[in-house]
Amino acid sequence: MNKILPLLAFMWTTQIVLSQNLSEKNIEEIIEGYTASIEMATVIKDCGHVLDGPTFIAKQFENRLLDASVHFSAKQRKTLATDIFNDMIKYKKVLEYHPSKSQVLDIITKLTNQLQFKKVNYHLTIIDSQEINAFTTMGGYIYITTGLLDFVDTYDELAFIIGHEIAHEYKLHTQRKVTKLLFSSSLLKIIQFEDFKKMALTINSSVSAPFDQIDEYEADKYGVLLAKNAGYDVKHFGDFFEKLEKYEKRDLLTKLKSTHPFALHRKKCIDQYVD
C-alpha cells in the first residue's frame, strides 16, 4: 500500500499537468492536494478497516469526475435545496420548540464561525423521532432527531456530531451525492433540470440520507477541526461511537453493504485526528 499510493498520486498529477496548460503555482497546488490525499489515506488505513485506505484513493477519482460533470447555477442549487427541504418536512414531525434548540443553534453558530468560507446559510430542523440520527441535505439543511438529542451526554459530543454534518455540506458531499444519483438514474443522458429535481426529491425522502463511507471519514476529520477550534472538549468527540460499538455487527458483508464505517474504526480515527 505504501508503494502504491505515491505511484497513484504521481500518475494523477502527471495526467492533469499534461492535459492542461497549468502555471507552476497551479502544479504546486495540485501536488499539495494529492500529498494531503496520501496522508489521509494512510491515516484511514492505520485506524480504519483494511479496505478503507485503497477505497479512499478510488474515491478521489470519483470526486473529480462528479465535480467536473454537472454544474449547478446558484439559482438551481437554491431551488433544489429548498424543494428537498420542503419535501422532507412533509413526512416528518418537525418540532418548532425543543428544550435544547437554543443550545443547538448556538453550537451551529460557533461551528460555522470557524469555516474559512461560509458558502451557505445553515438551517436547523429538529425531528420528533426516537431514531438516533442526524443528517444533512443539499443547501446546508441540518436535521437532528429528538432520539439523538436524548442519546448524547454532553454538548461537546453534540458539537462534534453537528460539525460532522456541517462538513458534509462544506466538503460538497451533499452536492456530489445528488450528482452521482443523476449518473445512476439517467445513465448519463441529458435531462431537464425539473426532471432532475424530481429525481433528487425522491431519493431524499428518507430520514437516513446515505453518504459514502469515505465521506464519513472526511466529515469526521473536519468535524473534529471545527468543534476543536470552537472550543469544545476533544475528549468527548468519540463518545458517540463508543456507545454505538456495542450495537453493531462487524463482518465483511456488513462492511460492504453499509453506507457508514464501523463505529470502532471511526472512534480510532477520531483519536488520531485530535492528537
Structural overview:
With 275 residues, this protein is mainly α. The protein has 2 domains: 4-69; 74-274, no CATH class. It is 64% helix and 6% strand. It has 13 helices and 4 strands. The chain has helices at residues 4-19, 24-47, 52-69, 74-90, 101-112, 146-151, 155-170, 173-186, 193-203, 213-229, 239-244, 252-257, 263-274; strands spanning 94-95, 123-127, 134-137, 141-145. The protein has a 4-stranded mixed beta sheet. Helix 2 packs antiparallel against helix 3 and helix 10 runs parallel beside helix 13 (263-274). The longest helix has 24 residues, at 24-47.
- For the residues shown, what is the average pLDDT? 77
Total E-strand runs: 4
Distance between the termini: 24 Å
What percent of the residues sit in helical stretches (DSSP H or I)?
55-70%
Structural class: mainly alpha
The helix/strand series, from N terminus to C terminus, equals HHHHEHEEEHHHHHHHH
Task: Estimate nothing, just give the exact number of structural domains.
Answer: 2
| Share in β-strands | 5-15%
What is the overall shape?
Answer: globular
Low-confidence stretches: 1-20, 187-191, 201-211
Total DSSP helices: 13
Oligomer: single chain
- Could you tell me the radius of gyration in angstroms? 19 Å
Widest sheet: strand ordering = 1-2-4-3
The largest pleated sheet is described as:
4 strands, mixed
